[in-house]
Specification:
Strand 5 (68-74) and strand 6 form a beta hairpin. 23% of the residues lie in helices and 29% in strands. It starts with a strand and ends in an 11-residue tail after the last helix. It is globular, with a radius of gyration of 14 Å. It has helices spanning 34-46, 86-97; strands at residues 5-7, 18-25, 50-51, 57-58, 68-74, 77-85. It has one domain. The protein is of the alpha+beta class.
Length: 108
Amino acid sequence: MNENYYDNSDIIADENGRVFVDRIYCLDFHKFDDGLWNKLGDIYNLLPHKIDIDFPTWYGVEGESDSYLCASVEPSGLQISGELKANDWIQWECVFNSYLNIFPLLEV
């Protein structure tokens, strides 16, 4: 198991090359100060296909678009969920994972 995250369901492409994502990045929000919250927001804006709405969303909006990815702060960490093309997920995931080392992580 990866120490930075866990998946609530397997991320496997379907026959159309799409994946359903339900991942928890084990960020320890109790250790976040204003600087880390701001940095997380900055990183959100660097990720592929950011949509400028009131909550962190990429590619499209759930219920309105064929593809979407969104983030929410949960007690277990940062939940990333959505449905999108497998290649888009891989691209997004690679960029996000490159920044994970700056955040405090929960012990899993």
